[in-house]
Design a protein that fits this description.
Helices cover 21% and strands 30% of the residues. By secondary structure, the chain is of the alpha+beta class. The strands form eight sheets. Strands 24, 25, 27, 29, 30, 31 and 33 form a seven-stranded mixed beta sheet that branches. Helix 2 runs antiparallel to helix 3, helix 4 runs antiparallel to helix 5 and helix 5 runs antiparallel to helix 6. The longest helix has 26 residues. The protein binds CU-O-CU linkage (C2O) and copper (II) ion.
Length: 614
């Protein structure tokens, strides 16, 4: 809100005029503050804090001084000018990206500086005064631009490790990421080869996609293993130019097997190979994808399903992976389940136990602000597992929408009824998967209303820690958008704690630490957050404790205006990506990492290295 009395601009201000302007400005400000605080009342302090601590005081303090001076008979010219400068600062603050804590001292200092400048400058009416001001403003803006542009340039070479908060001394020699491998010796129980290549694919509608494939197909082959298996996957790159890696999304493998280009390995160049080996310790639904320039490469098809079945209980009935993806058909995004972008029917005998493993690999079908939302109609069903982890005592659901984070998974279970059952992406009418007893029939009407809420679903069960445990480390990640510099240019940016890659400090932990992370989304877009190498327990959602089943995640959707507290045990040493899984946001810098003290990497990112970690 700019409160600039016109008289101020010409530098003449009578005492009464000054009071009138100051009072008017104060009233406008108070009204704006009241409205904002009311609007933010639902959102709480993390959202309103810097309104209260920065944007309001920078105007209110000098305005109060102006009124006070005027009432004492002093002409408050300077105070009124400072109020205007404060209004400008507050306005500026409103459009910039936000840090963990309001920058009270920074803006306070700027206001003092403005005061000093306004005092020291010669009067505006003199020619010298006008020139000095002009030069000062131009110099200030140019310096700001130059500094912002220069410091935001993506380096040609950059090491992602060793820069962060809480970096301390650890005993012992540094540990190289490359040494944190899975079992290097021993016969694998299951071994696979995945060959990346450029292969056009055809969707069910006939639309063709200039896809990148694994073994000639996109999605790539489904990898199904048993818990405890030693898994070996050989990656072969036959793409013409692009590097490739394999990341096991949601599976907490040893760090060197995590597949992040420039952090845990070099991207495999065309013609190259890389062998991944790990033991599949967790059961459930996961997926794999390249972690090199994924905003292009995953979208074009370099991903597939990874299912770990329990060692004891083989799958019975129908156990089906449904990968929801959004294909680039020309310029148009085309939502599909696998390659089925039209309604697909499948015959299932009534009474068959069904498990649909729904994986959201799509970036966003709806708008950037919304979550991809599914619905299952025609039968009551349960969400049996989230992100691979079994829920405790899930109840039957009917008539709810299922918002699912990009990267996230829901296992939906039910017994096949006598009539048809339809699973659909609600943004994609005319599509979806139709299970019917006779291979015929039409989708039952979607009656879903209200969103499935994991925070209140199922029943509580003991967890290794709770929100009242003593946490060794606490971190906050504020996602916000605003005007800022990205790779040298001014842009609308999405930032973590006011910064973007490669300038977001790492969050440093020691092995064994219990860590609490507060995730706050203050931007206008949805941010599905994904932490590698660890499953985190959601402790609270929007200030309310989780009251349902323990809710473990590796991908957590954060619609605008939401905030979450999550906790995890730092039990998997290494350097782990923590990023937004809207891959375009990640590519634009919404990435940071969790670092274990004493762990280093020899791998580098940047244009000179061929590694693009996102
Ligand atoms: Cu599914 Cu860091 O990725
Ligand atoms: Cu995002």
């Amino acid at each position: 809100m700019i409160v600039t009395p016109p008289a101020l601009l010409v530098g003449r201000l009578g005492r009464r005029a000054a009071i009138r302007w100051a009072v008017a400005g104060g009233l406008v400000l108070a009204a704006k503050g009241a409205v904002t605080v009311l609007l933010l009342a639902n959102f709480g302090w993390p959202f309103a804090g810097d309104q209260v601590l920065v944007e309001i005081p920078v105007v209110l303090v000098p305005a109060a001084a102006a009124v006070l001076l005027a009432s004492r008979g002093v002409r408050p010219v300077l105070a009124v000018r400072v109020t205007a400068a404060g209004a400008f600062l507050g306005f500026f603050h409103a459009f910039t990206v936000k840090a963990e804590t309001p920058n009270v001292f920074g803006y306070g200092a700027l206001l003092l500086l403005a005061t000093a400048a306004l005092r020291a400058l010669p009067p505006i009416r003199s020619r010298l005064g006008a020139t000095v001001r002009m030069v000062a403003v131009v110099a200030l803006v140019a310096t700001g631009f130059g500094y912002g542009s220069f410091t935001s340039r993506w380096p040609e070479r950059h090491t992602m490790a060793g820069t962060g908060h809480g970096h301390g001394q650890v005993a012992g020699p540094p540990v190289d990421v490359a040494g944190l491998t899975g079992p290097r010796v021993g016969e694998p129980d299951r071994s696979f080869t995945l060959t990346a290549a450029e292969t056009p694919i055809t969707l069910a509608s006939g639309a063709s996609v200039a896809a990148w494939t694994f073994n000639g197909q996109a999605p790539g082959p489904e990898l199904r293993v048993r818990q405890g298996d030693l898994v070996q996957v050989t990656l072969v790159n036959r793409l013409p130019e692009e590097g490739v890696t394999l990341h096991w999304h949601g599976l907490d493998v040893p760090n060197a097997e995590d597949g992040v280009a420039g952090l845990t390995q070099d991207a495999v160049r065309p013609g190259g190979t890389h062998v991944y080996r790990f033991r599949a310790e967790q059961t459930g639904t996961y997926w794999y994808h390249t972690h090199q320039a994924s905003s292009t490469a995953v979208v074009r098809g370099l991903f597939g399903a990874l299912v770990v079945e329990p060692a004891a209980r083989p799958a019975d009935g129908l156990d089906l992976v449904v990968m929801s993806h959004v294909w680039p058909v020309g310029e148009e995004p085309r939502p599909a389940f696998g390659t089925a972008d039209t309604l697909t029917r499948r015959t299932v005998a009534p009474g068959t136990p069904v498990r649909l493993r729904l994986v959201n690999t799509g970036n966003n079908t709806a708008s950037d602000a919304e979550t991809t939302t599914f619905a299952l109609t025609g039968t009551p069903y349960r969400v049996d597992a989230i992100d691979g982890v079994q829920l405790h005592d899930p109840a039957d659901l009917t008539g709810v929408r299922l918002p699912l984070a990009t990267g996230g998974r829901y296992d939906l279970t039910f017994t096949m009824p006598e009539g048809p059952v339809h699973l659909a992406d609600l943004a994609h009418s005319g599509g979806g998967l139709l299970l019917t007893p006779d291979g015929r029939g039409a989708p039952p009407p979607v009656t879903a209303s209200g969103d499935f809420d994991p925070a209140v679903y199922g029943r509580p069960a003991p967890t290794p820690f709770t929100s009242s445990s003593r946490f060794d480390r606490r971190f906050t990640i504020v996602a916000s958008d605003g005007v800022g510099f990205m790779d040298g240019a001014l842009d609308l940016i999405q930032a973590f704690n006011g910064r973007i890659y490669p300038n977001v400090p790492a969050q440093m932990v020691r092995e064994g630490d219990l860590v609490k992370m507060t995730l706050i989304n203050r931007s206008r877009d949805n941010h599905p957050m994904h932490l590698h190498g660890h499953h985190a327990l959601v402790l609270s959602a929007n200030g309310r404790p989780v009251t349902g089943s323990p809710w473990w995640i590796d991908s957590l959707d954060m619609p605008p205006g939401t905030w979450f507290e999550i906790g995890f045990r730092a039990d998997n040493p290494g350097l782990w990506m923590d990023h937004c899984h809207n891959l375009e946001h990640a590519a634009a810098g919404m990435m940071m990492h969790l670092g274990y003290e004493g762990v280093t990497t020899r791998f580098e990112t940047g244009s000179a290295t061929g590694n693009q970690p996102e």
